[in-house]
Amino acid sequence: MNPDFEAASARAQQLRKEIEQHNISYYVLDDPTVDDFTYDSLMNELKAIEAEYPQLVTEDSPTKHVGGYALNTFEKVTHAVQMGSLQDVFSKTEICSFADKCREALGEAPLFTVEPKIDGLSVSLEYTNGEFTRGSTRGDGFVGEDVTANLKTIRSIPKKLREDIPFLEVRGEVYMPRKSFEEVVEQQELDGEKPFKNPRNAAAGSLRQKDPKITAKRKLDILIFNIQQIEGRELSSHRESLELLRELGFHVIDDTPVKTNEELTEQIDRIGNSRDSFPYDIDGAVVKIDSFALRDNLGATSKFPKWAAAYKYPPEEKETKLLSIEVNVGRTGAITPTAVFEPIQLAGTSVSRAVLHNQEFISEKDIRIGDTILVRKAGEIIPEVLRSVAHEEGSVPYRLPDVCPVCGTAAVRFEDEAALRCPNTECPAQQYRNIIHFCSKGAMNIDGMGPAVIKALLDKKLIETAADIYSLKAEDIAGLERMGEKSAANLINAIEESKNAPLDRVIFALGIRNIGAAAAKLLCAKFDSIDGIMNATEEDISEIDGFGGVMSSNAVKAFSEPHFIHLINRLKAAGVKMEYKKEVKDDRFAGLTFVLTGTLPTLKRDEAKKIIESFGGKASGSVSKKTDYVLAGEEAGSKLVKAQELGIKIISEEEFIKMTE
């Protein structure tokens, strides 16, 4: 067999698998793992291989279908008219070639329209006699999800049209305005939650909430760009249909008519140059033939129409001057450098900072203070420094300090890590972040004890460690800025209530490196009490399924440190519960391991874990061959993907509840 063909076949197989995984992450889980540029590069490589070797094309190739799938958490909707995707082009030459092919196939010069390509979630809206009756996601183009209740929370979607058209189905793009996105991310960070990566990710995650009240709080919006079906009216062109949609009360995409290739590229550039002025993110410009009759003449492939194409803008990159490098100390002592540069506009927001990760990153890219650097924000909310473009005369390579910038303790670098760390557990920077973690929702959940209050208490020396929280008096808190007697009383009540937190949350609150919420629960299930955990050896702990050598070692080291022992003794004395009780109803789940991922419709994760344990089962934090069930909810992440790869049974909350009846 031809070695070139064998290599192409192997590469095509690898690309299909990788692209499908990215499709699941992007379209289904709303958690993209690569930026658009990387994804498009993989897809183009696969297209090139399939073009050269047509015998390698498979029916299930990602080049032949839309990337989405319908999740099991919503009712499925079969689309009467396919919600297809568009063919992507990446250069002016390609978009002009697309227009030329249309002209050649039609034997005339048609009118085209150009409009912004919103980076959101595509949906269908159905109206019967002018009433909004159903809304659904695109899914795989043929079958989507019924999200009617959530779509009704979007104010710009008319619930009643201005004309009682017998039946109308339109297609639009749901998006989260940049301003709303910034507000949501800020709140997620304050709540200690994983923030959305970008507005598209946020819009998709918000629209798939089981509780419409949550969707309503996210302030989503929509732009309509197409009529899928209509009864009672005859329309001849796209522009005519958009005008009708405006008259009916829809928020409609702006379009511009063009005839020549010159006009076409000028409009694409005009949209690209004004990206910052839009209240939403765009990732391209859509070019369509205006006439419906001419569209019908051209037809469509199995994946996209032949009368439209999407020009994709390259990742936005800009040069700026690096003014300084700030060094910050995190909760675990990690010393992290941050680039501070002259503000630039990227993806519609002003950017002036980006994390530089570690010394290895800085040295590899030879980044120096005063340099002209290249920064991008491609598909992610967090900007990144790509490289140094030019050094200033006389500049010298940058080195991170050898000591902690906060407490002056000599920094260390562990053998298995790239990061520098401050080993001083009493470092003020670490104490502040440790206390924030201790009070967070997943830990002791002390409502009202946010970062601002904690900083004020530290500044006034009312607390130094987490244990000091339990010695606070109402008058101490009432004396803080913006805190009155009622707020103080509420906070004292929340502190008192936190003493009843289960032991696994206390362990998690202590902030031991590599010991998350799931690992803390496993420790408690094995040893029953804080004393049992503190007296356990590294060998004892390593016997726990899911614990590796690093986790076991970190746990033993933490519980043998004098300051840790002192902290735990003070928490004990304050009345914090240090025993772990498991209520076992029966043993129907005995020997079974469950993994939870995503947001469940009605149950909180902690509640689901308690149910599993009450029937003798185990809730693990990671998916492996030993996992029996994956309980998946909204915004499920990589755990769901791994479970699918391993063939592990995936269940919904409804199926889970039936198992407990």
Structural description of this entry:
- The protein is an alpha+beta fold.
- It has four domains: 3-56, Helix hairpin bin (Helix Hairpins, Orthogonal Bundle); 76-312, DNA ligase/mRNA capping enzyme (D-amino Acid Aminotransferase, Chain A, domain 1), CATH 3.30.470.30; 315-421, OB fold (Dihydrolipoamide Acetyltransferase, E2P); 593-660, 3-Layer(aba) Sandwich (Rossmann fold).
- Helix content is 37%, strand content 20%.
- The protein has 24 helices and 21 strands.
- The strands form five sheets. Strands 12, 13, 14, 15, 16 and 17 form a six-stranded antiparallel beta sheet that branches. Strands 2-11-10-3-9 form a five-stranded mixed beta sheet. A four-stranded antiparallel beta sheet has the order 5-4-7-8.
- Helix 12 (428-439) packs across helix 13 and helix 16 (503-509) packs across helix 17.
- It is globular and about 85 Å long.
- The model is unreliable at 66-72 (pLDDT under 50).
